[in-house]
UniProtKB/TrEMBL annotation:
<dbReference type="InterPro" id="IPR032879">
    <property type="entry name" value="FixG_C"/>
</dbReference>
<dbReference type="InterPro" id="IPR017900">
    <property type="entry name" value="4Fe4S_Fe_S_CS"/>
</dbReference>
<keyword id="KW-0472">Membrane</keyword>
<keyword id="KW-0813">Transport</keyword>
<protein>
    <submittedName>
        <fullName>Cytochrome c oxidase accessory protein CcoG</fullName>
    </submittedName>
</protein>
<feature type="domain" description="4Fe-4S ferredoxin-type">
    <location>
        <begin position="267"/>
        <end position="295"/>
    </location>
</feature>
<dbReference type="InterPro" id="IPR014116">
    <property type="entry name" value="Cyt_c_oxidase_cbb3_FixG"/>
</dbReference>
<feature type="transmembrane region" description="Helical">
    <location>
        <begin position="206"/>
        <end position="223"/>
    </location>
</feature>
<keyword id="KW-0411">Iron-sulfur</keyword>
<keyword id="KW-0812">Transmembrane</keyword>
<dbReference type="Pfam" id="PF11614">
    <property type="entry name" value="FixG_C"/>
</dbReference>
<dbReference type="InterPro" id="IPR013783">
    <property type="entry name" value="Ig-like_fold"/>
</dbReference>
<dbReference type="GO" id="GO:0051539">
    <property type="term" value="F:4 iron, 4 sulfur cluster binding"/>
</dbReference>
<feature type="transmembrane region" description="Helical">
    <location>
        <begin position="44"/>
        <end position="63"/>
    </location>
</feature>
<feature type="transmembrane region" description="Helical">
    <location>
        <begin position="83"/>
        <end position="112"/>
    </location>
</feature>
<keyword id="KW-0408">Iron</keyword>
<dbReference type="Pfam" id="PF12801">
    <property type="entry name" value="Fer4_5"/>
</dbReference>
Amino acid sequence: MPVKAIKTLDQSIQKANASGGDDSLEVALYEVRKKIYPRAVSGVIARWRIALVALTQLVYYGVPWLTWNDRQAVMFDLAHRKFYLFGVVFWPQDFILLTALLVISALSLFLFTAVAGRLWCGFACPQTVYTEIFLWIEQWVEGDRMKRMKLDEAPMDLRKLRTKATKHGLWIALSLWTGITFVGYFTPIRELLGEIARLSLGPWETFWVLFYGFATYGNAGWMREQVCKYMCPYARFQSVMFDSDTLIVTYDYHRGEPRGPRARSADRKVLGLGDCVDCGICVQVCPTGIDIRNGLQYECIGCGACADGCNQVMAKMGYPRGLIRFSTENAIGGKYPDAEIVRHLFRPRVLIYSAILFAIVAATAATLYLRVPLKVNVIRDRATLVRETADGRLENVYRLQIFNTTERPRSYTVTASGIEGLELKGESQPIRVEGASSRMVSVRLLAERTAVRKGSNPVVFHVQAIDDERVRTGEKSSFIAR
């Protein structure tokens, strides 16, 4: 049970006992959420956060509008089971590459967390990014922190209704555009907007636009820090990847304590105080509402807003900056100076993560570079496994599905090997396959009865592009004899 909830429960019981109340007492075991009003802050870290918000949204909203070879540059065409990524077309057979991408993402998260804590959460996570954007809209419409608090406390009137309606209208518009952009990665976005304009949007597109838009509006506009604190599993297991040399947002308690208010001209050494003036700015700017001076907490998303806020106060007081800063537990504890933080980041855990990540990235890159833009599936005719021809030879029938993974038409020749005297018959060659498409062709293999043994005999189909000898592949199958 949270500490605050326990204190609330104890206070309620004490009040009931003191007042001689009823024998039954109804109390809440979970603290009611108190809305957080983050204060605007400026500084180096805030500028980095703004830059990353701009970058991530430029990529997210802009990429669907890029064109490549007269089509959308990035599109996941689930209906035709083709993924377009600029000049490369991926098919279901390339699922191993998706697996590699997921493994790389997971290892990167582990590596970044071991090195510098929750950088992903504080600077690039969609929940953080959209919460930040929604807060900017809220501050623009309703004003600074104090004005927002007063507005919420004020009774409903025409002005408050107009202000709230404007804010939520902008939130909803941004959320719907976010949902449209999301669906635009799966349905060409220009066609999608045309369907919306004609009110002819399909049911699945409608569902996902509304669902993704509602999720954005609810998570970034209403739930905000609750998602990070109670719904995101990363906050729960991040501590497993932390150690005393992980770079995190920390409060220098040796320098800051004992804390206390004082005049700007006062000598803190005479007063017996540390550098912390107990102004509470670090709490006011925190998007999750925690007090970093209480030590590292799982609610901390590592955004560094408290560091920027504290630096502003230190500058006004004439004290050195960095009372709250990105540092490590060992550096704050005095085990080594801040100048050696970078050296201690390269420790065995980090080196192992880096080596594994580099190996997987290198292997994936090599696979993509050496990837042959041709795939072939061989399907045996199950209706007739083997039949005897008029000239006494044995015949097997196959269907070859040829995938041209480039975006221009190509012609191919098909041959077979594995049995002496093996002959291939079927459609006239070369076989033309349009760009980014596949073609099913029927072929027959004929072999002398004396050249095969009873049962299964291995054979290989060879498919070769006419215009490029490097584009070729072989697919194994079997020839059945009786």
